């Protein structure tokens, strides 16, 4: 982990999309409402943070959290031993030039004392935090190493399943919550490999400037598609509720003030609205992940009756604010890339730019059913 960072703490988040078939004890599926929501073949996992949380209390967020030193431990070299001879443990190479890569991905971790590449450690963090917060474990048995070695070399990774091991995992989840390094112990003793290959690089968000003393995070966002919805359970500490729902259902409930989601969640869910099909989303994410991604730090500008969150590419976005060079950060004088808030529940996307690295623009206007209400 990069302990030299002054303003941000490194973190990883997982956007988990899963087919509608439910796990046996998963009773938290919101009944699908009419209209646009019924088009979706999958749900997304959202977790409600505790009101006592020091960061975004009561917010509904994707699973994830802060990087731990154990995510960069050399002990992972033994867990991933069959993959150690492959660059980044068999992860596919990203085409984006290293000089334009976001620092969270481009930082040479070996110089910081870790033999574990950043792309691997960040995925381990996302998987560990998802397990801690929701009980969902994305892992494969070491008995499948031969098949896995072959599949990660092929062009076309299929949608994956979550590991299900009943009460055994409940014990380990408590241990991992107590000490993140127990995630390594669990994988060793249960002969599991964290499924880093199922996570596709998606985006990188930095917490904007806010009130002094508040934590700020440099967060790598990954996306994973599951064939069916796994069982989940909140950790009863930071997470007080979990919810599976379609992207459009979540956005509709947000606009109806039934829940609150932070701007990155709003933006990413609006992106997912481009893909009602789980298979199409998976294929796109798998293909696009090797292109790379931008580093985004919103710049918030307040006015009398609203405030605006500016992002790189907007004509008013300050040069150099994203942390990249001014040449890379330069925007068109007529470009819009912003979210305008008349209040915390009423965002409006204004976008006229072309996204970099073959990424998606969000759906600007969500078709909302006016004949029924969401029950999130």
From TrEMBL:
Q: Which GO-annotated molecular functions does the record name? A: coenzyme A diphosphatase activity; metal ion binding
State the UniProt keywords alphabetically.
Answer: Hydrolase, Magnesium, Manganese, Metal-binding
Nudix hydrolase domain: from which residue to which, for each copy?
28-267
This protein's record includes keyword Manganese? yes
Q: Does the keyword Magnesium apply?
A: yes
- Per UniProt, the enzyme's principal EC class comes to hydrolase
Q: Which GO terms describe its cellular component?
A: mitochondrion
What is the catalytic activity of this protein?
tetradecanoyl-CoA + H2O = tetradecanoyl-4'-phosphopantetheine + adenosine 3',5'-bisphosphate + 2 H(+); propanoyl-CoA + H2O = propanoyl-4'-phosphopantetheine + adenosine 3',5'-bisphosphate + 2 H(+); butanoyl-CoA + H2O = S-butanoyl-4'-phosphopantetheine + adenosine 3',5'-bisphosphate + 2 H(+); hexadecanoyl-CoA + H2O = S-hexadecanoyl-4'-phosphopantetheine + adenosine 3',5'-bisphosphate + 2 H(+)
Enzyme Commission (EC) number: 3.6.1.77
Which Gene3D superfamilies does the record cross-reference, listed alphabetically?
Answer: Nucleoside Triphosphate Pyrophosphohydrolase (3.90.79.10)
Cofactor dependence = Mn(2+); Mg(2+)
Q: Which InterPro entries match?
A: NUDIX_hydrolase-like_dom_sf, NUDIX_hydrolase_dom, NUDT19
> Could you say which protein family the record assigns here?
Belongs to the Nudix hydrolase family.
- PANTHER family under this entry? ACYL-COENZYME A DIPHOSPHATASE NUDT19, TESTOSTERONE-REGULATED PROTEIN RP2
State the function annotated in the UniProt record.
Fatty acyl-coenzyme A (CoA) diphosphatase that hydrolyzes fatty acyl-CoA to yield acyl-4'-phosphopantetheine and adenosine 3',5'-bisphosphate. Mediates the hydrolysis of a wide range of CoA esters, including choloyl-CoA and branched-chain fatty-acyl-CoA esters and at low substrate concentrations medium and long-chain fatty-acyl-CoA esters are the primary substrates. Highest activity seen with medium-chain acyl-CoA esters and higher rates of activity seen with the unsaturated acyl-CoA esters compared with the saturated esters. Exhibits decapping activity towards dpCoA-capped RNAs in vitro.
Q: This chain belongs to which protein, by name?
A: Acyl-coenzyme A diphosphatase NUDT19
Please name the taxonomic classification of the source.
Answer: Eukaryota, Metazoa, Chordata, Craniata, Vertebrata
């Amino acid at each position: 982990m990069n302990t030299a960072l002054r303003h941000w703490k490194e973190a990883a988040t997982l956007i988990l999309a899963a087919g509608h078939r439910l796990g046996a004890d998963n009773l938290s599926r919101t009944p699908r409402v009419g209209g646009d929501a019924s088009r979706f073949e999958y749900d997304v996992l959202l977790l409600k943070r505790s009101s006592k949380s020091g960061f975004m209390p009561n917010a509904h967020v994707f699973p994830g959290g802060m990087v731990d030193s154990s995510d960069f431990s050399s002990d992972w070299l033994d867990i991933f031993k069959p993959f150690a001879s492959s660059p980044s443990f068999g992860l596919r190479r990203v085409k984006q030039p290293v000089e334009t890569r976001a620092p969270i991905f481009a930082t040479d971790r070996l110089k910081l004392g870790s033999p574990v590449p950043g792309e691997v450690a960040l995925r381990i963090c996302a998987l560990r935090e998802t397990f801690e917060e929701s009980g969902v474990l994305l892992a494969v048995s070491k008995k499948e190493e031969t098949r896995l070695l072959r599949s990660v070399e092929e062009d076309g990774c299929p949608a994956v399943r979550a590991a299900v091991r009943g009460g055994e995992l409940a014990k380990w989840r408590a241990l991992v919550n107590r000490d993140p390094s127990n995630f390594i112990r669990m994988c060793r003793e249960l002969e599991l490999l964290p499924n880093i290959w199922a996570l596709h690089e998606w985006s990188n968000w930095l917490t904007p400037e806010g009130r002094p003393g508040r934590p700020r995070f440099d967060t790598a966002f990954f996306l994973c598609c599951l064939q069916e919805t796994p069982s989940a359970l909140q950790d009863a500490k930071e997470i007080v509720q979990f919810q599976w729902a379609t992207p459009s259902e979540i956005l509709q409930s947000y606009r109806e003030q039934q829940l609150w989601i932070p701007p990155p969640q709003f933006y990413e869910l609006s992106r997912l609205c481009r893909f009602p099909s789980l298979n199409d989303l998976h294929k796109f994410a798998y293909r696009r992940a090797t292109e790379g991604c931008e580093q985004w730090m919103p710049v918030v500008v307040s006015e009398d009756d609203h405030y605006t969150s500016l992002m790189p590419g907007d004509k008013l976005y300050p040069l150099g604010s994203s942390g990249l060079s001014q040449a890379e950060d330069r925007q068109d004088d007529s470009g819009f890339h912003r979210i305008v808030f008349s209040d915390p529940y009423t965002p409006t996307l204004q976008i006229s730019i072309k996204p970099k690295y073959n990424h998606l623009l969000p759906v600007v206007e969500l078709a909302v059913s006016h004949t029924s209400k969401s029950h999130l």
